[in-house]
Each structure stands twice: as structure tokens, then as C-alpha cells.
Design a protein that fits this description.
With 855 residues, the protein is of the alpha+beta class. It contains 17 helices and 52 strands. Helix 8 runs antiparallel to helix 9. The longest helix is centred in the N-terminal third of the chain and has 23 residues. It is globular.
């Protein structure tokens, strides 16, 4: 190289090095953003506090009003008000605070209590100490030094303090001193994450802008989430570096700086259509979908999760879309509410792939097989879905089904059947009027979408977070869609569409169905364990006892019994450690099973003679020393202790007349009462030691239903002649003629006070009444189109009936009005319970157990 050329090269190199050094060590001046601490997770930017406040106050849109009234947007105005009062004698400062760009930065750390750091552009050379000396608000301020800067601690009142500092043309203030210190420390650094955002200036200017840093958000939210979902904030941070929202009351614009997997959206993404809404159930709560313009490239981006089974059995038939959906949240940790859906390019190839996969990796017997017009495959191994789901315990044994031009994957067959049932009866998003209006507002040819139904917002958050975050309440309920379109230079633009839910929500919906090997022998029982799980227990006509997971209907265990169960199945804390055991009796034995369906040691107990009624189990002293009371066909009543030993005072006590119904136990003023009602109307009320509380009463008629007591307490029963009996603890009896003979009676709380009301069913009519001083008075009546065969009281002051012939069940409120959505399918008495704030009804229907959502 010649000397002149070398000199020119060295000069150019020096200029390049100097430029590089300037870039590395001198931050870009991005106004107030350069003072934002890197740990700021959310920044609310006001184009002037007064201008923004006026826009917020003038907003009339209900959904935006709900959002803008949340603490994130209202707290900055409350925290800025003392600063406005402090500098009200300074016209330039008042103008700057009211009109200049102001940043309110939140760390979202609990210790900051949603108090933001304020950064305001002001005139350079502002003398803060002089302004404080002349202020009229307070003279209680104390300076301290931090890295050569002066921070003033200002006492506004006994409980209010404000930390204020000035740096160049920036005013910094906050209720938290550490936040002001963090801002001053950030100004000393040569680089600033917030100033370096390449798309910050591309976000349209507006009175209100919001900026998110997902990485900082993940630090604050990770440990607040339930363990199963703690990876979600990090997943967001790996794919979105920055997100900005601009709102000017007429439109909302969203821009993101993408990274990681989403950074390839422009390469592998493809246009979406609306076909997926034809199969999505109408109770879809959340939906994330991506169009696949280049299928191989999409899965290459998931290279760290590649699997041979996926490439062999799935990749060859995958079409142009991948979808992850959550239905209405009713199962713990959303374990049964998830769906994975893939578009299919070749349905015949997909079917052959599943059959080959099943042969090589194994299918689940009893799960794989036809349902309605569909074929369902249940797989023993989930490895072929690993690139999409990872090690998701919910999909340990995934279930697949071809539906239109999609393949659906569900955690279990019950969840899959629910989706197919809804598809068959048209309960899909494509048939929902609100969703159809929403789809008309969505931009075409977007590459990805997020959908959420805010009616299910609370349930979703309860399943994701240990403590539910405070979000804007939406009493109306809305469908929201965020559509994503890639731009150049690792940016994506997001457009929003919304639609208010206009109609009343569906009142009942099928949650799951579980077929049994034969007809159900009696109504199901739901028992909640100490861990919060719910089990459904029932017996079929072949005497097999089933335990089902109440969340999704899956079989937990079953047990063959030699006889029919006579009693209700009760959950007891047999070991005193909080776990539940299930106890019941047949004609010859008393069983106690643990949660896994195994006999507890010492059980079953052999009864001294064949039982004629269901047993009563009592823990008198709440010390897990259980006692069992049962009547036998030898004419004796037996009381058995904790391990089957005969109780004193209950050793083969003779009884007059057959006893078909369980005894009743209650306590009043520290005393135990045990009630025995024989079929021929003999009422005996015993103390714990077996002595009579009052002389035995002879009630007229035949009694084929059990006695019951209210909290007053009073004892109630009904005979087959239509007479209702009520007596107090001294044996004083009232009798009411409720109706004609051979009807059905029930007692329970309806009006809300302690005393029970009564209901009497006669074919197609039910009379409901209450007790008064003169006997019984009628409250209202209910007329049916078809004859009803069972009547009973339900929780929350409601009445249920069963039509055995038509296999229909009804639920009525305390005024006798039918609950919307009823009747439902079922031919047994039903039970109601609540999971995650959602009420669920379980009933028998032929040889299947059905569960419904009741909203």
C-alpha cells in the first residue's frame, strides 16, 4: 500500500473509530426518555397532563372509560397534584406541568404501591431550590446529595412526602425517593434502553401513549403467577422487546418491536381467514392463532423443540394455520380447558398418520373410537406434539379428532366430546351474532390474531395468578381481537377491534359427559377434598362404583361391589389429616375407601344382619372417632363405633316396624339428637346415649321418604297420603294436608330464614308453601307440561324436579320461575357445586353422567 493511500486509510479508520466511540459512549438525546430507569416496566406518557386529563374525562366509549378509570391511569393525576400546588407560584412550571410531555414510569413492584416516577421537560437553568424557598405550600423541605445532584425531600403533610430533583431540562419527582435516585443514576449512564428503541418515534403522537418493557414486566409478574404459568412472562419477553400504544380518543394505534420467534413473522407468516370460527365453541375465552405462509420455516423457528415423531406424523399434513385456544375456565390451572388446532392440507394423509402413529406408539383403549360421526384417537405418548406444547402435563395423553379442515387436540376425550357436541348443535363462534359483527371489523390478511372474551376475564386471571391483578371491570362484556401485521425492521403493527356482548349469556352449557358400562343406579354425589379437588361418585346397575374427576369427567377409579349401595356416599376425614375418605353401606357391609379407591384398614365392617336402610355416620366429638347407625331386617337398630365395636346403649335396640330411610342427626345447644322414622310412622328421637328425648310419636300413614330437620330446629316428614308433619323438640306436632295421596314432598330453605318451606308435587303441578301458626300456607304453584317424578330443594333457595320418562331436569328460583336454559337432559336428582366461581350441575342420564355449566 502506497504511503498516501495508507494515510487516507488511517484517516478514514480514525473517523470510523471516533464515530463508533461517540455512538457507544454518548446516548441519543430522546428527551425525557433518557432518564427512565431500565427497570421501568410500564410508562404512561402524557402529551400534557391537563390535555390528557380533559381527553380522559371526555371519553364516552364504555370500554375505554373502564380502562382509563383504572389505577394505572388515574394514580398519576393524584400523585402530580401536589407538584402542581407546590409550583403554582411559578407560571413557567405550571405551564410545563400542564402542557409539556410528561412521563409517569411504573416499576409495578409491590413496594412502589403504584406510585410512579415523573419526568417532565422544563426550561433549562431552572433553579429548584429558589422555587422551593418562595413556594406558599410548605417550608418543610430537606436537601440531600446523590451523585452530585440535590434531591429535596418535601413534607406536604404528616403523611405525604414528595421527592424532587432537577437535572438539566428535566424535573424529576415521585413519592418514592429510590425512583428519583434511579432516574439520576440513569442520566449518568452512556446508554439507555428506553432511548435506544428504534421504533419509538414511529408511534403516533397523541395525548396519551403507553409503553411496555416486557422484560421488566416479567421480573415483577413471574413470581405472582401460579407455578404452572410462570414461564409466560418470559415467553413474552423473549418475543417482544417493546410495545407502544397511542390513543387520541378517536383511534388506538399499537406498535411493537419484536424479537425471537415473532421476529420471523414476516418470513413464515401467512394470511388468516375465518374458517376456524366455524368449529370454535361459543364459550371460547382466549385464542391465539398464526397464519403459516411457510410451514417448514415456522417449525424451523421452533428448532429447539424438534422431534422425529412430529416430523414424521404431523408435519407432512399441516396446513396454513396453527391455533391455541382456551375455553371457559372451569378446571384447575386450565388443565381441561385447552385446545390445540392445526389446519390440514391433506385430510387423508392426516388420518393415515394417526393410524400409523397409534400402531407404533400405542393408543388408549376406551378412548380411541367413534363418537357420533367422528373418529377420535387417544394416544399413550405426547412426544409427537412436543414442538408445539413442550412438556405440558395436561396433554400427557392427547386426544385428536379431524373436524372439517382442521385437526383438534384436546387433553382428554371428555373435553373433545364437548367441542364436537357444540359443533353438532351449532354452538360455535361462527353462529354467534356478536362474533359475526366483530369479524366484519377485522382487517383482512393479517398474519396473527389474539382473541379474548372479557366475560371470562376473571376466571382466566384466577387460574394464572396467585393474587388476581386489579384490571378494569367490564360489566358489559366484550369480544376483543388484536390483529398483527409485520412491518420492516423487526416491527409489527397491531390493530384492535371490539364488539360488546349484546345478548344475555348462555345460561346452561354442556361441560362434559362420561358414559358408564350400564344404567346409573342412583343420583351422583359430589365430594370436595381438602386440596380443592371435586370427585363425582355413583354406582351403576351392575353395582360398580365409579369415581370421576368433577372437572372433566375422566375416570379416577372404579370398584366392583357385590351389592347395591343403600346409603349416600359421604366424604369423611377418617385419618384426621385433611384427606377425604368415602364411606357408605350395602345390605351386609360398611365400606370406607381412601381417595384412590382402596379399602381403609379394618374395612369393610360386616353388619350383624342385613341392613334395611342407609346408615348414618356421625363424628360426635369432631375427633375422627366415627359412629355408624343402621337398622337391620332382624328388627334391631345397631350403633357401631369407630372400628365396628357396638356402642353402649345401641346394642341391638329393638325397633317397631320396618325402617327404610336413614336416621337423622343434628345438634342443639350442645346436645345430640338422633331421629328414627319407621315406615309405619313411629318417630323416635334419641340422645347420644340411646335414651329417648321425648316419648315415641305415632304419626298416621306410610312414610317412604326420610325425615329432615331445619336449624330452628324442627323435624319434618311426609306420608304417602299427602300429609306433612312438623314437630319441635318436645314432640309437639303440626300436620298440613298439602295435596292428594301418592304425591312427592320435599323440605328446604326457600325464603332465606331458618325455618324450612315445603313443596308438594302432584304429577304436572307443584304447590310450594310455608308453615305458620295455623298450619301451612301456600306461597305459589308451578305447572308443568309433562309429569314430574322427583322434587327436592337445592342450594341458594332453589327447587329441582326430575321427569324420569322424558329424561329432563328443571331448576326453579325462590319465586317458582324456571332458570333460563332449563330443562336439561337428565333422569336423576342432580347436585350443584362451584369451581373457580362457576356453578356446575351434575346429573345421571341413562348410562352416562352429564355435567353442565349453570351461569
Amino acid at each position: 500500500m502506497q504511503p498516501p493511500t495508507r494515510r487516507l486509510f488511517l484517516a478514514l479508520l480514525s473517523v470510523l473509530i471516533a464515530a463508533l466511540l461517540i455512538y457507544l459512549f454518548l446516548p441519543r438525546n430522546r428527551g425525557p426518555y433518557r432518564a427512565l430507569p431500565s427497570q421501568s416496566a410500564l410508562v404512561v406518557e402524557f402529551g400534557g397532563l391537563l390535555r390528557a386529563k380533559k381527553m380522559l374525562d371526555d371519553t364516552r366509549d364504555p370500554s375505554w372509560r373502564s380502562t382509563l378509570n383504572s389505577p394505572i391511569f388515574q394514580q398519576p393525576f393524584r400523585d402530580a397534584e401536589p407538584a402542581l400546588r407546590l409550583f403554582r407560584h411559578q407560571p413557567d412550571m405550571v405551564k410545563a406541568l400542564a402542557q409539556n410531555k410528561t412521563l409517569a414510569a411504573f416499576t409495578l413492584h409491590p413496594s412502589d404501591s403504584l406510585h410512579p416516577l415523573f419526568i417532565v421537560e422544563i426550561s433549562s437553568g431552572f433553579n429548584l431550590e429558589k422555587a422551593l424557598k418562595t413556594n406558599e405550600m410548605t417550608q418543610k423541605y430537606f436537601p440531600h446529595q446523590f451523585h452530585g445532584n440535590t434531591i429535596f425531600n418535601i413534607h406536604l403533610s404528616k403523611t405525604e412526602q414528595l421527592e424532587v430533583a432537577a437535572a438539566g431540562n428535566l424535573l424529576l419527582f415521585s413519592r418514592k425517593a429510590t425512583l428519583v435516585e434511579d432516574a439520576l443514576a440513569q442520566l449518568e449512564r452512556t446508554r439507555n434502553w428506553w432511548s435506544d428503541r428504534p421504533h419509538l418515534d414511529e408511534l403516533p403522537e397523541a395525548p396519551l401513549r403507553v409503553h411496555l418493557r416486557p422484560a421488566a414486566l416479567a421480573e415483577q409478574w413471574r413470581n405472582r403467577m401460579l407455578p404452572r404459568w410462570r414461564g409466560l412472562p418470559d415467553l413474552l419477553a423473549r418475543n417482544v422487546e417493546w410495545a407502544g400504544i397511542s390513543y387520541d380518543s378517536s383511534q388506538c394505534r399499537i406498535l411493537t418491536e419484536t424479537r425471537g420467534f415473532l421476529n420471523g413473522l414476516a418470513r413464515w407468516g401467512g394470511p388468516l381467514d375465518t374458517a376456524i370460527f366455524n368449529i370454535l365453541p361459543d364459550n371460547t375465552a382466549f385464542l391465539a392463532r398464526a397464519g403459516l405462509g411457510n410451514v417448514p420455516d415456522f417449525f424451523r423457528h421452533l428448532g429447539e423443540l424438534r422431534s422425529g415423531d412430529f416430523e414424521q406424523f404431523v408435519l407432512p399434513w399441516v396446513g396454513k394455520e396453527a391455533v391455541f385456544a382456551l375455553t371457559e375456565p372451569v378446571s384447575p390451572a386450565l388443565s381441561g380447558d385447552r385446545l390445540l388446532i392445526l389446519a390440514v392440507s391433506d385430510t387423508a394423509l392426516a388420518r393415515r398418520s394417526f393410524e400409523t402413529l397409534g400402531k407404533s406408539r400405542g393408543v388408549l383403549p376406551g378412548i380411541t373410537g367413534a363418537y357420533q360421526m367422528f373418529d377420535i384417537w387417544g394416544f399413550q405418548d405426547a412426544g409427537f406434539l412436543h414442538p408445539l406444547l413442550g412438556n405440558d402435563d395436561a396433554f400427557r395423553n392427547p386426544v385428536a379428532c379431524l373436524l372439517e379442515n382442521f385437526v383438534l387436540f384436546a387433553p382428554d376425550r371428555s373435553s373433545m366430546e364437548l367441542v364436537l357436541d357444540k359443533y353438532l348443535v351449532g354452538q360455535t363462534l361462527a353462529n354467534n351474532a356478536d362474533c359475526l359483527q366483530l369479524l366484519q371489523k377485522i382487517k383482512q390478511n393479517d398474519n396473527a390474531q389474539f382473541f379474548i372474551n372479557t366475560a371470562f376475564q376473571s376466571g382466566l386471571l384466577k387460574n394464572l395468578f396467585q393474587d388476581e391483578p386489579e384490571l378494569p371491570s367490564d360489566t358489559v362484556g366484550r369480544l376483543l381481537v388484536a390483529s398483527i401485521q409485520p412491518r420492516l425492521a423487526a416491527a409489527t403493527e397491531i390493530s384492535m377491534a371490539e364488539q360488546a356482548l349484546s345478548g344475555a349469556p348462555v345460561q346452561t352449557d354442556i361441560l362434559w359427559k362420561m358414559p358408564l358400562s350400564s344404567l346409573i343406579a342412583g343420583p351422583p354425589v359430589v365430594i370436595q377434598t381438602a386440596g380443592g379437588n371435586h370427585f363425582v361418585l355413583l354406582q351403576d346397575a351392575q353395582n360398580r362404583l365409579y369415581c370421576l374427576d368433577a372437572q372433566n369427567g375422566s375416570l379416577v377409579w372404579s370398584k366392583a361391589l357385590s351389592e347395591r349401595i343403600l346409603s349416600e356416599i359421604e366424604g369423611i376425614d377418617f385419618y384426621g389429616n385433611g384427606s377425604k375418605c368415602f364411606t357408605f353401606n350395602t345390605a351386609t357391609q360398611i365400606f370406607t375407601l381412601d381417595e384412590a379407591g382402596r379399602d381403609v384398614q379394618g374395612f369393610p365392617l360386616i353388619l350383624p344382619a342385613r341392613a334395611t336402610n342407609g346408615m348414618l355416620v356421625v363424628d360426635f366429638d369432631k375427633n375422627t372417632k366415627f359412629s355408624y347407625f343402621v337398622a337391620c331386617e332382624n328388627g334391631n337398630l345397631y350403633g357401631l363405633g369407630h372400628l365396628g365395636k357396638t356402642l353402649d346403649g345401641w346394642n341391638a335396640r329393638p325397633i317397631s316396624g320396618p325402617v327404610r330411610q336413614p336416621m337423622l342427626h343434628f345438634q342443639h345447644k350442645g346436645k345430640d339428637y338422633l331421629v328414627l322414622l319407621s315406615e309405619n310412622g313411629l318417630l323416635s328421637v334419641f340422645g347420644r346415649d340411646g335414651s329417648l328425648r321425648f316419648p315415641t310419636l305415632q304419626w298416621e300413614g306410610v312414610f317412604n321418604t326420610r325425615a329432615i330437620a331445619d336449624p330452628v330446629p324442627r323435624i319434618y316428614a311426609a306420608n304417602t297420603a299427602g300429609q306433612l308433619f312438623s314437630c319441635d323438640l318436645q314432640g309437639n306436632t303440626n300436620v298440613v294436608q298439602a295435596g292428594k295421596p301418592n304425591g312427592s314432598a320435599a323440605f328446604g330453605q326457600l325464603a332465606g330464614d331458618a325455618r324450612f318451606e315445603w313443596a308438594y308435587l302432584e304429577g304436572k303441578s307443584t304447590r310450594v308453601g310455608a308453615w305458620d301458626n295455623s298450619g301451612g300456607k301456600s306461597l305459589f304453584s308451578i305447572d308443568f307440561r309433562e309429569k314430574q317424578h322427583r322434587i327436592f330443594f337445592c342450594p341458594d333457595h332453589r327447587i329441582g324436579t326430575v321427569d324420569l320418562r322424558g329424561r329432563r331436569i328443571w331448576l326453579f328460583d325462590q319465586q317458582g320461575n324456571p332458570r333460563p336454559g332449563f330443562p336439561l337432559g337428565g333422569n336423576t336428582a342432580f347436585v350443584l357445586y362451584t369451581v373457580n366461581g362457576v356453578e356446575i350441575l351434575v346429573t345421571g342420564n341413562g348410562n352416562a353422567v352429564w355435567a353442565y355449566l349453570v351461569r
